[in-house]
């Protein structure tokens, strides 16, 4: 995540060097996106993991604080749909269900606890897909079903690739460690290729003896 955000922020650096009308036009957008991305990655890396563990899957040391915290989540799920017009009813039901499962976690058998965890994950994934299909609308506003299919295919495909990588990662790592020289050579070749695409062949290899003579 940090690498993805960093590459996006770096791609805006040339915009900051623009002058004249172009700089006045694009610099505010570049600054806004840069600060928004930096703020998002800071929140994602520092606040979201502990809050998610605390509210959803965490084990609070004090039993009283645990009941109070999860009871507050359940109360918010009950009250929010009645008070806030933009808060959907089904989201309140989900909050109550999550809080209830955490409150009764010690009394629920491990098998059913795992099943409930998978069920909650699937439900939340479906909710996110529906929200993305509605707000993002990659294929247009009038093709809701096609948007849902597209988002499901995109998100599901990415998750399947990630799960496959996690499954085969030990074998891949073992194979790369057995062929360290070849792997480092290919990685170096990619870096050199990128430099050549950026600076041209002459600037990258101009220091070699005889290069200027053979390539005037």
Task: Write a structural description.
The chain is mainly α. Helix content is 82%, strand content 0%. The protein contains eleven helices and no strands. Helix 1 runs antiparallel to helix 3, helix 5 packs antiparallel against helix 6 and helix 7 crosses helix 8. It is extended. It starts with a helix and ends with a helix. The model has no long low-confidence stretch (mean pLDDT 82).
Task: Name its key features.
216 residues; mainly alpha; 11 helices
Summarize the structure.
The protein has 216 residues and is mostly helical.
β-strand amount: under 5%
Percentage of residues assigned to helices: over 70%
> Mean pLDDT, nearest integer?
82
- Based on helices, strands and strand pairing, what is the structural class? mainly alpha
Radius of gyration: 26 Å
Largest beta-sheet details? none
> Care to count the β-strands?
0
User: Which of globular, elongated, flat, extended, rod-shaped describes the shape?
Assistant: extended
N- to C-terminal distance:
45 Å
Order of helices and strands: HHHHHHHHHHH
Counted by DSSP, the helix tally is: 11
Q: Which segments are poorly predicted (pLDDT under 50) over 5 or more consecutive residues?
A: none
């Amino acid at each position: 995540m940090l690498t993805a955000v960093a590459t996006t922020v770096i791609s805006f650096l040339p915009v900051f060097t623009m002058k004249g009308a172009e700089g006045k036009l694009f610099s505010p957008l570049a600054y806004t996106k840069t600060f928004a991305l930096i703020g998002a990655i800071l929140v994602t890396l520092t606040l979201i993991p502990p809050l998610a563990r605390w509210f959803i899957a965490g084990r609070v040391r004090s039993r009283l604080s645990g009941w109070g915290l999860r009871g507050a989540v359940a109360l918010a799920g009950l009250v929010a749909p009645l008070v806030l017009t933009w808060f959907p009813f089904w989201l309140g039901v989900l909050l109550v269900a999550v809080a209830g499962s955490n409150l009764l976690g010690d009394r629920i058998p491990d098998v059913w606890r795992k099943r409930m965890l998978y069920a909650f994950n699937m439900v939340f994934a479906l909710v996110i897909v529906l929200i993305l299909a509605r707000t993002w609308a990659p294929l247009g506003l009038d093709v809701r079903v096609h948007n849902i299919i597209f988002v499901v295919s995109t998100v599901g495909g990415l998750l399947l690739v990630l799960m496959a990588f996690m499954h085969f990662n030990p074998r891949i790592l073992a194979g790369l460690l057995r062929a360290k020289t070849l792997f480092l050579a290919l990685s170096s070749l990619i870096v050199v290729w990128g430099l050549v695409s950026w600076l041209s062949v002459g600037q990258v290899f101009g220091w070699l003896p005889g290069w200027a003579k053979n390539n005037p």
